[in-house]
Specification:
Elements lengths: L7 E6 L4 E3 L8 E6 L1 E8 L2 E9 L3 E2 L1 H6 L6 E4 L3 E6 L1 H7 L2 H24 L14 H19 L1
Antiparallel strand pairs: 1-8, 2-7, 3-6, 3-8, 4-5, 4-7
C-alpha cells in the first residue's frame, strides 16, 4: 500500500504510545507497516491482552464499517509505523453493496464477541496469550491514564 495514496496518512508511534483506547469514537482503519502492537481490554483493575499484531495486519476494521465505538485499546510494543485510512474513503470509494457486507460481517463479529464476553469460552489443550505481569499491568495503566489526561485537556 502506498502511504502517499489519497485518503491515507502515514503515522509513526514509539514503543509505549497508545494508538487509541476502547470506547473512543474515532473511526479510521489502520494498517501496520512495521512494528508491533498489543490489543487489550481493561476489565476492572486488570489489563487483558487479546492479541499481538505486526506488519501487514489491520486494526479498527469493525469500527471502520459500523462506525461503532472502539472495542479494544491498542498500545505499541515496539516503534510502529501505520497507514491510516480515513473512514471517508469507505463512503467515497466503496459501492453500497460492499458497505452492506462489511456492516453485516461486523455485526456478526460483534455479536460473537459479546457472547464470548458474557458466557466465556472454554478451550481445551489450547495455549492462550500469556497474561501480563503485575509490573506490565501497572505500566499499561499508567500509559492509559496519561492518554486519558491528554485527551481531556
Amino acid at each position: 500500500m502506498n502511504p502517499e495514496s489519497e485518503g491515507t496518512t502515514k503515522i509513526s508511534l514509539k514503543k509505549d504510545e497508545i494508538l487509541f483506547l476502547a470506547e473512543e469514537n474515532e473511526k479510521d482503519l489502520f494498517v501496520i507497516e512495521q512494528g508491533e502492537v498489543m490489543v487489550f481490554v481493561q476489565k476492572g483493575s486488570q489489563i487483558i491482552p487479546v492479541a499481538y499484531l505486526g506488519a501487514g495486519e489491520y486494526i479498527g476494521e469493525l469500527t471502520f464499517f459500523d462506525e461503532g465505538k472502539r472495542s479494544a485499546s491498542i498500545i505499541c510494543t515496539k516503534d510502529t509505523d501505520f497507514i491510516k485510512i480515513s473512514v471517508d474513503e469507505l463512503h467515497t470509494h466503496c459501492p453500497a453493496w460492499m458497505k452492506t457486507i462489511g456492516m453485516q460481517l461486523t455485526r456478526k463479529i460483534r455479536e460473537g464477541d459479546e457472547l464470548i464476553r458474557s458466557k466465556g469460552i472454554r478451550k481445551k489443550n489450547v495455549e492462550g496469550i500469556k497474561p501480563l505481569s503485575m509490573e506490565e499491568q501497572s505500566h499499561c495503566f499508567k500509559l492509559v491514564d496519561h492518554k486519558k489526561r491528554n485527551m481531556s485537556s
